[in-house]
């Protein structure tokens, strides 16, 4: 009846992209409320023990903390739009530069973990769902639950204690000291994302060094999401295997393997894609712990450092960046979803 | 017996119930409508005490909405419903709820109509509880009485049961018990038997007849099944797409159906009489989308007796051509398709349809071929002119007539085949007929969306300039692009928004009839958007990591 | 042989049946025990013939259709014989019977929307089916066949590349029919194909099913609860009650002159345009985990005799063709002495119903 | 009473296969930890911050022995006792936070889903934003703020955990409300004249909260992990205030290199076990409650040979 209801793919994408603005606005407002309004006076919290009252007041004035809240709110929004997150209290660095220098490491870690989780989780989930209530299903589910249940730092701890040694893998940092030094010296840090820079440099020693450093943290973080993927894929397979169109395909005599692949697996992965966006958020959260455990020079590690310093400006800036990243990822996921599932567009 | 009396108990005047359609996620966020569905569109109906009025129609006919509107469950957009002289629209929420003691409802799916977490006693008793009967023992007495009345005996077996322990027929009895326990005078029965098994339907129908007899009820019987309506109803209103198309005494409707839709329904009922022949002249197609109903008479695209003035339009042309193609071979189809091109744009209803992509002459030849195949199609009479435009033709249809309900013999019919018969028995009733509504308004060129798009587009295009006036000035004075390390994100986003608005104006602006000058506005807004985008991103391009020092302290605190 | 001739001959019932079911049983496992959904059913279906299978919900008619197709849930069992093209489907290896599906045995379902994969275009559905059973065809040939089938169902070729959700309810059911018929199976099961549709669309679909014989020479098992549809679209009818076919024969014969009391009561309780008074069958269908002894209808039967409660009725020839199982019809010689006495039945309360 | 018991046993009696075993295993594991939590003072040989007994100082980072089953750590604390006391902290925090979540999230979801409109839209947007945000980061930020205000107490951590889980309860309850309010029985309730409050309380509530136990247990598992994560970062409860597994693991990290394995292994295993137990319960419940996942226990079908006539 509603054949060409209201929309096409471009229209859907446009709508979805426009929806980003209010989403970001809401999230910025939340960040502002939580970090600027709630705590009261960040300056004295951070520097109260280092500066006298007059100096504190000067800092407050300079940062605009003496302005009315509404003005501060407007200033905050404007500064975010200009990608200006201010300067950290504790070490006087431009927050944007902190993000630039450390964001790359976080990005490479999460992406590597994500790839590992996908490569391991999705096939295992498919097998478990297809052969429900068999021995492989039980084992895979147990693996999934355990890999989710084991805290990142505990897995990291076990890996560091029992795996790193025998395999000769480093347990700390994103690269060896030489790699970092020579990359910097030779001006090879073009993108500020080490993983990309070493590949751009083409030097196999650097590449090996960086990949070795990446291995354990990425596996640790990947395992966390892997359990989630297994569960998700399995449940969706179970549901699509029961769906009417699968039975209808069987009734048409489509070969069982084709039914499984084309009807059950493919359809089961669609909702999975939607949830992947949310899993990325989980990854970013997990990255904080992974980075701390492995001394990975990423944003999460920095964030924890600044939190311990009570550096509100830095925390606010980093949190804002994370927030915007999450919103953007969710939009990308939605658009990908619309490309795959024709029903979404309408 | 005094009833059915002539005393009206419910009086529905010009009732319309419109729903806003949900749009996309953005529209949902803003709360704007993506269009309206006229579920009920200007209906007049009087219920007399003690009679059974049938509302019959297919899905989307608005029969259920009309039934729900009687209880105030569907808010009236226009018009009034008077129950015993009280207008439902005037009642406050509390008084309206109190009124529901007097008008009750029975639902189609008895399994869904009962709360799965309530026992039979709680479910039936809750009707009393919400109307303030606090004492549990008093309630129990009344519940037992009601359950006995609907035949659920021995009552003790049923009181503690949950709906899942009951059969379909038993559940429907519980629903009936809940409906009669407050002592209503009107019962709206929305397809009460259609979800039940064949052998139970007659039982429930019998029960409803008994209840009517015992309690003096007035029924509104909503159904798609003409057979049960024929048996059960005193009067029948045939509904189609939110309108009553024929209304009158049951015998007359069945003995002498007048509206083509009524005739079609009667022909289509499967009948267990083995001597009956399968009907050959069924209406084609399906109930159209209520969000944009056909022009003129809503039934004309499916009608076997349609006339040239029934409201022909572009979508009918598409159906005609596609129907033609189902009878062509693959090669013929491929050839003709290349002449006509894509037909999707015909889905936007208009009386001037442009088709053809391979030249006007070819398109005319094609149309002639279609016509030769089925020369009797009434749509041909509805075409005013076929003019050459560009590489195709523009088919201009006649303005259609939207027929109003008019008296025809003992019934009233809304069909151009039955023009007015002013001297009716109930002249007073026909006086209150709706005047024929004005033809579908050809849009004045401006609608809310167009204006909204323009405003939003202009703001999005200009705001970044205004908000950053200081920056742009600075930028000119310094004359050095690279002195700014900040990306003007607002500019980029504003540009995108403005471009989107402009594009939407360009393609969809100005309502149904696209005035060229809205296209101009669209172009301007879109261009502004592009400009804004370039402005925002030119700063982006100029960013160089080595020169990222901040030059300006006035806007970078 | 021309289609017209085969059509004429099918009405003669003289040809070899396409499908021939003998004493088929299909039982389900539940938490309470086995449900005897189909319990000893036999019927024949001639080429191009349509057999209507009617009965109340829960009488096992859908299960029978699925059992023939082999689409049964876990824990269900079936036995008996189903002869199709000289082979017994039920004793085949699963692999072989799977191969028959689609190409030889087709199925049309009740809710067409959920039966189509929402992520696949209509064209993909057709390609997949045709390719599976005829791998030698080229892409163009496949498209040709699919478009031909669609055209017969009145779906324009412009819609070939659309997605299922872009069609209306009636169109989707036409799609399902086209998809079942594009492989030209000789036997199709249609399970309540019109239940979810509007009155006028239902009539359109019934018409299409009625035309099947002419267009495809396909035998059809039409499962429905609507006796009206049977009267309009079927050659023969089988009335099912509590897992058994109690009466079958030519539609006109059975409906004009029902031999089994259940058939008669079912017809009488149906509300049609000619209804002048309401009739109904008292009581509810039995629990199929533990069905009553003897004739399963005897607790509700207005004419039950003593023998009905103790011995299974014998399946015998109806006076005017077809078969019926009821002691009222016979055979006289198998009724024990005193068996014809009227059975004293338990009182059925009004609310004891389905 | 029997009815209640039967209703509680329903998940067991109705299902079969792995779902049943998961449920049983999960409940047993969880029960053990709950017992540890309740009877920690009786079960643990020493206090959680006890460095000496009867005047005798415990060894520093001593290996497992008869006196100290799991050894002692660098602060001279008994690892076994801290592991048991840790269960108490974990369960306290999780129960408190679930309570807050349910009390806030369920009514909010019910009202927002039932009334819709602007209130619903704005709340949904805020909750979605919170939900989309990396929950662990959010927990960090909240505990960072709350510990400034409330100190590193159980309440502060429970509150910050609640803040990240409320959106989940809200969303689930809201979405089920939105679909449940379209159900005919709600329309029927309106048709008999029930007010909005009555509809929400008597008709919607029971049908909407059914999904809460599943989210509750799964969230409890996640909350344990988050709590431990916070402790690991030193943002949660301090080790002298209560025993907290995550914090202990953090301190154990530096031991890993020196061959002291017992300080890290046991708290880590405790976390893994408890989270596994809760997840098993949650997933088991899900497979019994969710009709699309449920496998009913079927009696096998035996077809008797045909009776000859």
Automatic annotation (TrEMBL), chain A:
It is found in: Cell membrane. GO terms for biological process: transmembrane transport. SUPFAM superfamilies: MetI-like (SSF161098). The chain crosses the membrane at residues 12-35, 105-126, 138-159, 214-233, 268-289, 313-340. PROSITE patterns: ABC_TM1. Pfam families: BPD_transp_1, BPD_transp_1_N. Residues 103-337 form the ABC transmembrane type-1 domain. Its main location: membrane. CDD domains: TM_PBP2. GO terms for cellular component: plasma membrane. The keyword Transmembrane applies. The keyword Transmembrane helix applies. It is a multi-pass membrane protein. Keywords: Cell membrane, Membrane, Transmembrane, Transmembrane helix, Transport. Belongs to the binding-protein-dependent transport system permease family. This is ABC transporter permease. It comes from Nocardioides immobilis.
TrEMBL record, chain B:
The keyword ATP-binding applies. One of its GO terms (molecular function) is ATP binding. This is ABC transporter ATP-binding protein. Pfam families: ABC_tran, oligo_HPY. Residues 21-266 form the ABC transporter domain. The chain crosses the membrane at residues 451-472, 484-505, 517-543. InterPro entries: AAA+_ATPase, ABC_transp_ATP-bind, ABC_transporter-like_ATP-bd, ABC_transporter-like_CS, Oligopep_ABC_C, P-loop_NTPase. Belongs to the ABC transporter superfamily. Keywords: ATP-binding, Membrane, Nucleotide-binding, Transmembrane, Transmembrane helix, Transport. It comes from Nocardioides immobilis. Residues 425-445 are annotated as: Disordered. The keyword Lipid metabolism does not apply. GO terms for biological process: peptide transport; transmembrane transport.
From TrEMBL, chain D:
GO terms for cellular component: plasma membrane. It comes from the Bacteria. GO terms for biological process: transmembrane transport. The keyword Cell membrane applies. Keywords: Cell membrane, Membrane, Transmembrane, Transmembrane helix, Transport. Belongs to the binding-protein-dependent transport system permease family. This is ABC transporter permease. The lineage of its organism: Bacteria, Bacillati, Actinomycetota, Actinomycetes, Propionibacteriales.
């Amino acid at each position: 009846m509603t054949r060409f209801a209201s929309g096409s793919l471009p229209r859907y994408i446009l709508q979805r992209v426009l929806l980003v603005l209010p989403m970001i606005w809401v999230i910025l407002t939340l960040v502002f409320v939580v970090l600027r309004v709630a705590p009261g006076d960040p300056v004295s919290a951070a520097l109260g023990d280092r500066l006298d009252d007059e100096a504190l007041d000067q800092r407050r004035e300079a940062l605009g903390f003496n302005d009315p809240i509404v003005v501060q709110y407007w200033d905050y929004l404007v500064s975010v739009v200009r990608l200006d997150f201010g300067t950290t209290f504790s070490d006087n660095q431009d927050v944007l530069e902190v993000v630039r220098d450390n964001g790359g490491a976080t990005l490479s870690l999460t992406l590597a973990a994500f790839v590992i989780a996908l490569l391991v989780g999705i096939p295992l989930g498919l097998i478990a769902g297809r052969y429900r209530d068999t021995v492989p299903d039980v084992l895979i589910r147990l693996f999934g639950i355990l890999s989710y249940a084991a805290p990142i730092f505990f897995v990291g701890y076990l890996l560091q204690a029992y795996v790193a040694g025998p395999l000769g893998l480093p347990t700390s940092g994103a690269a060896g000291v030489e790699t970092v030094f020579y990359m910097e010296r030779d001006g090879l840090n073009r993108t500020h994302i080490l993983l990309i820079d070493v590949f751009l440099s083409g030097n196999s020693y650097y590449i090996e060094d960086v990949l070795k450093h990446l291995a354990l943290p990425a596996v640790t973080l990947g395992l966390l999401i892997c359990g989630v993927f297994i569960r998700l894929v399995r449940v969706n397979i179970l549901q699509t295997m029961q769906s009417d169109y699968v039975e209808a395909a069987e009734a048409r005599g489509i070969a069982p393997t084709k039914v499984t692949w084309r009807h059950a697996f493919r359809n089961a992965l669609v909702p999975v894609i939607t949830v992947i966006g949310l899993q990325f958020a989980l990854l970013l959260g997990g990255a904080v712990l992974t980075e701390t455990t492995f001394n990975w020079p990423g944003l999460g590690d920095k964030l924890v450092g600044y939190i311990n310093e009570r550096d509100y400006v830095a925390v606010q800036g980093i949190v804002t960046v994370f927030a915007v990243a999450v919103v953007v990822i969710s939009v990308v996921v939605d658009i990908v979803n619309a490309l795959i599932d024709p029903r979404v567009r309408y | 017996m005094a009833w059915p009396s002539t005393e009206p108990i419910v009086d529905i005047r010009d009732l319309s119930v419109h729903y806003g359609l949900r749009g996309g996620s953005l529209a949902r966020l803003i709360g704007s409508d993506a269009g309206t569905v006229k579920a009920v569109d200007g209906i007049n109906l009087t219920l007399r005490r003690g009679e059974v009025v049938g509302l019959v129609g297919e899905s989307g006919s608005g029969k259920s909405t009309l039934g729900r509107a009687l209880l105030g469950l569907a808010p009236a957009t226009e018009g009034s419903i008077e129950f015993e002289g009280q207008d439902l629209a005037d009642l406050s929420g509390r008084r309206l709820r109190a009124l529901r003691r007097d008008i009750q409802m029975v639902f189609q799916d008895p399994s869904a109509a009962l709360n799965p977490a309530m026992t039979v006693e709680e479910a039936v008793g809750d009707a009393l509880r919400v109307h303030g009967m606090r004492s549990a023992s008093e309630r129990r007495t009344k519940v037992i009485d009601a359950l006995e009345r609907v035949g659920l005996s021995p009552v003790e077996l049923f009181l503690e049961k949950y709906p899942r322990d009951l059969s379909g027929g038993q559940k429907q009895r519980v629903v009936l018990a809940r409906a009669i326990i407050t002592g209503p005078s009107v019962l709206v029965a929305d397809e009460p038997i259609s979800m039940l098994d064949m052998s139970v339907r007659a039982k429930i129908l019998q029960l409803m007849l008994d209840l009517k007899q015992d309690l003096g009820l007035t029924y509104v019987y909503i159904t798609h099944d003409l057979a049960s309506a024929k048996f059960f109803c005193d009067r029948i209103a045939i509904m189609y797409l939110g309108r009553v198309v024929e209304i009158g005494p049951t015998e007359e409707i069945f003995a002498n159906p007048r509206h083509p839709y009524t005739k079609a329904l009667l022909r289509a009922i499967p009948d267990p009489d083995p001597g009956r022949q399968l009907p050959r002249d069924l209406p084609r197609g399906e109930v159209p989308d209520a969000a944009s109903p056909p022009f003129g008479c809503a039934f004309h695209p499916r009608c076997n007796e349609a006339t040239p003035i029934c409201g022909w339009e572009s979508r009918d042309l598409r159906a005609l051509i596609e129907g033609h193609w189902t009878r062509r071979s693959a090669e013929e189809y491929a050839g003709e398709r290349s002449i006509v091109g894509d037909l999707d744009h015909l889905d936007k209803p208009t009386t001037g349809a442009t088709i053809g992509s391979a030249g006007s002459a070819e398109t005319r030849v094609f149309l002639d071929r279609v016509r030769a195949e089925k020369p009797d199609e009434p749509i041909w009479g509805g075409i005013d002119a076929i003019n050459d435009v560009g590489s195709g033709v523009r088919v201009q249809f006649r303005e259609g007539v939207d027929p109003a309900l008019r008296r025809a013999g003992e019934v009233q019919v809304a069909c151009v085949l039955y023009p007015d018969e002013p001297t009716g028995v109930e002249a007073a009733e026909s006086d209150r007929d709706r005047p024929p509504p004005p033809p579908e308004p050809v849009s004045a060129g401006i609608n809310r969306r167009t204006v909204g798009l323009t405003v939003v587009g202009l703001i999005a295009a200009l705001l970044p300039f205004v908000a950053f006036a200081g920056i742009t000035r600075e930028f000119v004075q310094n004359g050095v692009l690279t002195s700014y390390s900040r990306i003007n994100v607002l500019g980029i986003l504003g540009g995108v928004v403005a471009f989107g608005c402009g594009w939407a104006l360009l393609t969809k602006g100005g309502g149904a009839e696209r005035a060229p000058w809205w296209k101009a506005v669209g172009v301007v807004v879109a261009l502004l958007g592009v400009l804004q985008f370039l402005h925002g991103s030119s700063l982006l391009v100029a960013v160089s990591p080595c020169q990222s020092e901040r030059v300006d302290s006035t806007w970078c605190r | 042989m021309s289609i017209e001739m085969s059509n004429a001959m099918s009405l003669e019932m003289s040809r070899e049946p396409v499908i021939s079911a003998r004493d088929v049983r299909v039982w389900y496992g539940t938490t309470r025990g086995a449900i005897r959904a189909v319990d000893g059913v036999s019927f024949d279906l001639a080429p191009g013939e349509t057999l209507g299978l009617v009965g109340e919900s829960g009488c096992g008619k859908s299960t029978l259709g699925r059992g023939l197709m082999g689409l049964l849930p876990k824990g269900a069992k079936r036995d008996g014989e189903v002869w199709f093209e000289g082979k017994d489907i039920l004793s085949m290896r699963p692999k072989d019977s799977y191969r028959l599906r689609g190409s030889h045995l087709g199925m049309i379902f009740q809710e067409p929307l959920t039966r189509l994969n929402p992520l696949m275009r209509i064209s993909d559905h057709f390609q997949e089916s045709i390719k599976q059973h005829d791998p030698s065809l080229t892409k163009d040939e496949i498209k040709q066949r699919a478009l031909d089938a669609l055209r017969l169902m009145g779906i324009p070729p412009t819609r070939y590349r659309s997605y299922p959700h872009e069609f209306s309810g009636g169109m989707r059911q036409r799609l399902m029919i086209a998809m079942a018929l594009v492989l030209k199976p000789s036997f199709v099961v249609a399970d309540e194909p019109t239940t979810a549709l509007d009155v006028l669309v239902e009539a359109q679909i019934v018409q299409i099913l009625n035309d099947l014989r002419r267009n495809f020479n396909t035998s059809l098992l039409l499962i429905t609860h609507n006796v009206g549809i049977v009267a309009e679209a079927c050659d023969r009818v089988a009335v099912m009650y509590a897992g058994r076919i109690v009466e079958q024969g030519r539609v006109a014969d059975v409906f004009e002159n029902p031999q089994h009391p259940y058939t008669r009561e079912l017809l009488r309780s149906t509300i049609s345009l000619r209804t002048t008074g309401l009739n109904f069958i008292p009581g509810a269908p039995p629990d199929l985990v533990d069905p009553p002894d003897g004739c399963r209808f005897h607790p509700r039967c207005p004419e039950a005799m003593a023998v009905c409660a103790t011995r299974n009725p014998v399946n015998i020839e109806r006076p005017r063709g077809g078969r019926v199982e009821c002691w009222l019809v016979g055979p006289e010689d198998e009724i024990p002495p005193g068996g014809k006495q009227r059975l004293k039945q338990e009182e059925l309360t009004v609310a004891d119903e389905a | 009473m029997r009815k209640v018991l039967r209703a509680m046993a329903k998940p067991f009696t109705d299902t079969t296969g792995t779902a049943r075993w998961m449920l049983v295993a999960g409940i047993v594991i969880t029960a053990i930890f709950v017992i540890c939590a309740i009877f920690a003072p009786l079960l643990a040989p020493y206090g959680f911050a006890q460095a000496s007994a009867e005047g005798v100082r415990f060894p520093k980072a001593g290996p497992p022995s008869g006196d100290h089953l799991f050894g002692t750590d660098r602060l001279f604390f008994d690892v076994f006792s801290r592991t048991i006391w840790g269960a108490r902290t974990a369960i306290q925090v999780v129960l408190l936070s679930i309570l807050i979540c349910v009390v806030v999230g369920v009514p909010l979801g019910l009202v927002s889903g039932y009334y819709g409109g602007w209130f619903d839209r704005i709340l949904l947007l805020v909750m979605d934003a919170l939900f989309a945000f990396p929950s662990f980061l959010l927990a960090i930020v909240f505990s960072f703020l709350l510990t400034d205000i409330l100190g590193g107490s159980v309440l502060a951590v429970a509150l910050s955990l609640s803040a990240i889980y409320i959106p989940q309860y809200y969303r689930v309850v809201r979405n089920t409300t939105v679909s449940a309010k379209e159900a005919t029985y709600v329309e029927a309730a309106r048709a008999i004249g029930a007010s909005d409050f009555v509809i929400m309380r008597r008709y919607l509530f029971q049908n909407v909260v059914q999904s809460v136990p599943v989210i509750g247990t799964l969230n409890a598992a996640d909350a344990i992990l988050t709590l431990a994560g916070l402790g690991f970062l030193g943002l949660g409860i301090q080790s002298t205030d209560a025993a907290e597994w995550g914090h202990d693991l953090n301190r154990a990290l530096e031991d890993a290199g020196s061959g002291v394995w017992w300080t890290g292994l046991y708290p880590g295993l405790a976390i893994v076990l408890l989270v596994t137990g809760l997840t098993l319960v949650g997933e088991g419940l899900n497979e019994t409650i969710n009709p699309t996942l449920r496998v009913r226990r079927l009696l096998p079908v035996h077809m008797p040979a045909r009776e000859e006539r």
